[in-house]
Amino acid sequence: MTEEVHGEEGHSPVAEAPPRPIPLEFEAHYITHQEAYHEYALFYLRTNDAAERAVHRVFLEILRHWDALLTESDLQQQTWAIMRRTVIAEALLNFRNQLTAMDTGNGLYTALGSLSPRQFDVIVLRYIAKYDAKHIGWYMGITPSTVDYHCRKARERLSPIWHRASNKEITK
Q: I want to staple 119 with a disulfide (CB 3.0 to 4.6 A). Which of 62, 114, 115, 136 is the partner?
C-alpha cells in the first residue's frame, strides 16, 4: 500500500504537499508586530539569536491558535500575553542554565537547577521577582494554591542545602 503513494523517483507526494496557507490577517499581524516583539525579547534575552528564537516560537503559537484568537475582543492583548509568557519562559530557562553552571561550593545553584520546571519557576518568580501566588498562578496557568504547593515542595528540596550553607557561615 505504501508503494502506491510514492510518485516518480520514490518521492512521496503527501510529504511534499504544500503546508496550509497562512491567513492574510495573520501575515498582517506579523508584519505589524514583529519588530516590537523582537525588541522586547532582545531586552530580556540579551542576544539577537535568543530573541529571534523566542519571537519565532511566539508567532508559531499565535498561528496555532489564530482562529480562536480572532474571536477574542482583545486580540492585541491576547497575542501580547503569548509573547510575554514565551519571552519570560525563555529568560527563566536561560537563567536556570546559568545557575547550574555557577558553583558556590555549597551546591545551592546546582540544587536550584535540579528542581522541576514548575518548582524552579515558582521559586524564581516568588523570591527573585517578588510576585505573589495569584500573579504567578496567572502567568503559569495554575491556581494560587498550586503555586503554594510547588513553592513548599521546592523549599523542602532546597532545605538541606540552605541549612548546610547557613552552618558553614556560622562556623566561620
A: 115
Give the integer Cα–Cα distance in Å for 168 and 162: 10
How many CA within 13 A on the CB side of residue 94?
16
Residue 105 Rama label (left phi>0; alpha psi -120 to 50; beta): left
Residue entry with cell 505589524? 32
Q: 109 versus 100: which is more confidently predicted?
A: 109
Distance CA 87, CA 78 (A): 14
1 has pLDDT over 90 = no
User: Is pLDDT at 9 greater than 80 in this prediction?
Assistant: no
Query: Residue 7 CA to chain centroid, in angstroms?
Result: 41
Strand, coil or helix: what is 157? helix
**Domains of the chain as residue ranges with CATH:** 21-101 (1.10.1740), 103-172 (1.10.10.10)
Amino acid at site 6: H
Please report, for residues 87, 147, 154, 160, the alpha-carbon distance to residue 166 in angstroms, rounded to integers and kept in the order given: 34, 26, 18, 10
**Whether the model pTM is above 0.85:** no
